[in-house]
Amino acid sequence: GVARISCLAAGSPAIDRADPGYGSQVFTFGPLQKSATQTFPVAILPLPAYAFTSVAVSCDAYDAAGNKMNASLQLPLADLRAPVVTASSLTNNAVNVSPSVNVALTFSETMSAASVTASSIILTETSSGSSVPLTFIISGDRKTVTVKPLSHLARGTGYTLTVTTAIKDDIGNSLATPYVLSFTTENLQGK
Q1: Which residues of 135-148 are buried (b: 16+ CB within 10 A; e: fewer)?
Q2: Beta strand 179-185 with 94-97: parallel, antiparallel or unpaired?
Q3: How far apart are CA 105 and CA 175, in angstroms?
Q4: How far, in whole angstroms, is CA 45 from its chain's centroid?
């Protein structure tokens, strides 16, 4: 029968090394068991954004004579968190904004360049709802998208910039909710 089971989880920086079990546990039985099922908790740290990794769990079962039988499995782990806009070069409800404004949006993780489109980031004139044609500059680390209107914006006009849930991170997670930023351009020439 089974006298002892020794389990170890390894192979990933996602294992919480501050966990008292640190990814290992030993189960001892008395009397011996014909078979045994045990819960083996492993504390997993939050994955870095856009990360895929895995944890290997290996258990050795020993009988009273010390004979060993091994079983192991690989558990895949993936980032399931939605990206968020963490910063903007323009504050919400800003006034006296230059008509030549570019807005830099910083995201919590690397974004899919293919998802940065006129459907995922939209600038509209607030009162009329008219769309403003845009171009986008994506930073090298793909965490910042600079939104550039193709021409100067109208003076003394309210605008709404919306980042829709069509924008995705590298794994394919969408923004959980749209990000909306409103602003008004300056009214006077030469400011």
Answers
A1: eeeeeeebbbbebb
A2: parallel
A3: 13
A4: 14
54, two tokens: 């895995």
Q: Is the peptide bond before 41 cis (omega within 30 degrees of 0)?
A: no
Q: Kindly state the helix (H) or strand (E) to which residue 85 belongs, with its residue range.
A: strand 85-88
Q: How far apart are CA 21 and CA 127, in angstroms?
A: 60
Which residue, chain included where needed, has tokens 């492993």?
A: 42
Partnered with residue 121 across adjacent β-strands are 163
147 near 117, Cβ under 8 Å? no
Cα–Cα distance for residue pair 139/102, rounded to 1 Å:
14
Which of 12, 10, 28 is CA-nearest to residue 72? 10
Q: What is the pLDDT along the chain (191 residues), one digit of tens a residue?
A: 889 888 888 765 555 555 555 577 888 888 888 887 888 777 666 666 545 667 788 889 998 899 999 988 887 777 778 899 999 999 999 999 999 999 999 999 899 999 999 999 999 999 999 999 999 999 999 999 999 999 999 999 999 999 999 999 988 899 999 999 999 999 987 54
CB-neighbour burial class of residue 181 (10 A; exposed 0-12, middle 13-18, buried 19+) = buried
Give me 24's structure tokens: 């290992």
